[in-house]
């Protein structure tokens, strides 16, 4: 496994731990300092925006995943696995359809 992949997995583990603590804090009424800054949130939004832009034609026959044979048919609405995964963090929000889950 390369160092970059190890780094990314560790960061995800850290984020999950921070989220777990935040959930526990909400349940118990206590608070801890959160290490995720607004700048980090903006960076994550930029990342998702760029990925969505790169995959905006997937499912139409003209996207990068269409060329790889990894897109969904147009009636599916998700476009490709990348777009489906981008939507996953918002599965609890109003308007998210269960059929969009990856």
Automatic annotation (TrEMBL):
Pfam families tied to this protein: DUF6221
Name of the protein this chain belongs to: Uncharacterized protein
């Amino acid at each position: 496994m390369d160092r970059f992949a190890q780094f990314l997995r560790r960061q995800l583990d850290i984020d999950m731990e921070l989220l777990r603590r935040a959930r526990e804090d909400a349940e118990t009424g206590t608070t801890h300092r959160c290490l995720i800054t607004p700048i980090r949130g903006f960076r994550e939004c930029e990342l998702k925006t760029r990925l969505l832009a790169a995959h905006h034609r997937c499912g139409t026959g003209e996207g990068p995943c269409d060329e790889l044979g990894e897109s969904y048919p147009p009636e599916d609405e998700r476009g490709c696995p990348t777009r489906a995964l981008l939507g996953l963090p918002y599965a609890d929000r109003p308007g998210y359809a269960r059929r969009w889950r990856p």
